[in-house]
């Protein structure tokens, strides 16, 4: 009986970047505006090296 060659299904390449669950801002100005509205904590704005967007951090 001939062998059936079945092609293997490759799983999709999923890149898990550290900032996946963080709120991303398209501009520094929008991130700063949001940071200034925070009243309970002081937030710092930083450019993300992974997604090239802007995020907020409460770490000092």
SSE blueprint and pairings:
Blueprint (H helix, E strand, L loop, with lengths): L27 H10 L6 E4 L6 E4 L3
Antiparallel strand pairs: 1-2
Order of helices and strands: HEE
Enumerate the strands of the largest sheet in spatial order, edge to edge or round the barrel: 1-2
Structural class: alpha+beta
Oligomer: single chain
Unreliable spans are: none
Number of helices: 1
Residue share in β-strands:
5-15%
Biggest beta-sheet profile: 2 strands, antiparallel
Q: Rough shape?
A: rod-shaped
Helix content class: 10-25%
Rg from Cα: 21 Å
Roughly what is the average pLDDT, rounded to an integer?
A: 86
Q: How many strands appear in the DSSP assignment? A: 2
What is the terminal separation in angstroms? 69 Å
Question: How would you sum up this structure, described in words?
Answer:
This protein has 60 residues and is of the alpha+beta class. The chain has a domain of 30 residues. 17% of the residues lie in helices and 13% in strands. The protein is built from one helix and two strands, in the order H-E-E. It has a two-stranded antiparallel sheet with strand order 1-2. Strand 1 and strand 2 form a beta hairpin. The longest helix has 10 residues. It is rod-shaped, with a radius of gyration of 21 Å. 3% of the residues are buried.
């Amino acid at each position: 009986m001939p062998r059936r060659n079945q092609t293997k299904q490759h799983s999709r390449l999923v890149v898990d970047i550290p900032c996946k669950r963080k709120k991303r801002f398209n501009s520094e100005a929008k991130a700063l505006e949001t940071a200034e509205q925070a009243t309970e904590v002081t937030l710092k704005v930083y450019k993300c090296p992974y997604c090239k967007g802007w995020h907020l951090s409460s770490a000092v």
